[in-house]
Write a structure and sequence with these properties.
284 residues; mainly alpha; 80% helix; EmrE-like; membrane
Amino acid sequence: MVYILLAVLFSVSVSVLLKLARRGGIDIVQAVATNYVVASLLAWWLLGATPQAALAAKATWPPLIALGILLPAIFVVLARSVRTAGIVRTDVAQRLSLFVSLFAAFVVLGDVLTGQKALGIGIALVAVLCVLWRRQRGGASEADAWWAPLLVFAGFGAIDICFKLVAKAGASFGAGLLGAFLIAMVLCWIVVAVRAVSRTAALSARSIGFGVLLGAFNFANILFYVRGHQALPNDPSLVFASMNVGVVVLGTLVGALGFREKLTAVNWLGIALAIAAIAVMTYA
């Protein structure tokens, strides 16, 4: 369980870093681009991953290219969501995104929809609405507080679907992960180069240094989650539940206590429903 605890800590730490990025004058595009350099190197070094297996099969290319676009895009949206909607709402939306891929499994991958799984999906959808509910004040920032976490919810669900399609095509987790990281890295640095040449955003040592830290924390989250499954091979549901509930609970504590994010009774109900949805799914 130590691995799961570390995975939870690093997952929430990524949200905290993104929350602090604006205060430090960080260019998030440069930070995300650097993040994928670090994550690719760590995937190769610590997981022994090579992209050949993922890149060799033609069936993996469509989902890999989609991942290469979605991964950096969702990182930018994640940063926007943390800034406008807060850590609590963003982390809950991210964790509940697994129900998007669960629903897609019935429609696309031929999974069987049981009553318990349908109940889990239903509770998750209500939980998302409750967590994101705010008293309407109007204005652009208020709109961001809705659409940014909703995009996080949909985007992480789409990413999970793409990883499932890569695995279905025969690529290992490590190969698919590294292949997606490398595509994302190339696309991100093309954007960084264009912005630098057009003088839209000059290269910043601070942003690149922040990206190194972000990449290390992001990969540590993935690594320890994988190690948790390896340490408890006969209890995948325990790992699944501990990780998701842990992030929801810790993210709520950090957001509400550390950053004084205001939560209404409806939001707290949504957090409770999120934990209930994860519990239902765990034992489905």
